[in-house]
Design brief:
There is one protein chain. With 134 residues, the protein is of the alpha+beta class. The chain has two domains: 31 residues, no CATH class; 67 residues. The protein has six helices and five strands, in the order αβαβαββαααβ. It has a three-stranded antiparallel sheet. A two-stranded parallel sheet has the order 1-2. Strand 1, helix 2 and strand 2 form a beta-alpha-beta unit. The longest helix has 15 residues. The model has no long low-confidence stretch (mean pLDDT 81).
Length: 134
């Protein structure tokens, strides 16, 4: 008898669930609209450990190969396109070293030094355009 009573109450108070990807204050504002309804709110995120680990792995693989790459000046958004037979990661480190020690061996570094621009974070300015063999 006790079990029957619980089932009846459970069916009457059946709630629905809604899943929202949390992006900040906007999400809180929207979910407050459901406060007085039978809809329960669950927050999720796109930033999971699995995604972070697989992203890092794919980025590493992408820059560990040779090919065509593009560097973007963080200040004026000019682009430099280069090709290397070595890993793109190695070539990008050479650009950083040239900038650090004021060597103007590459046109990208010459542009940065001549216009007094900063080099920025390498992950933000480098892009692998085309992966090729040597």
């Amino acid at each position: 008898m006790l079990h029957k009573k619980r089932r009846q109450n459970h069916n009457v108070q059946k709630q629905k669930w809604a899943k929202f990807t949390y992006i900040g204050e906007e999400t809180r504002f929207i979910t407050k609209l459901f406060k007085d309804t039978n809809v329960r709110i669950v927050f999720t995120t796109n930033n999971t450990i699995q995604k972070c680990l697989t992203m890092k792995k794919t980025l590493q693989c992408k820059y560990d190969k040779s090919g065509v790459y593009q560097l973007t000046c963080p200040d004026c958004k000019m682009k430099y396109t280069g090709q290397t037979g070595r890993p793109i990661r190695v070539r990008s480190q050479e650009h950083i070293q040239d900038f650090k020690y004021n060597n103007s061996r590459s046109k990208f570094v010459q542009h940065l030094i001549h216009n007094k621009h900063a080099i920025g974070n390498m992950e933000d300015i480098i892009e692998s355009v085309h992966i090729t063999g040597k």
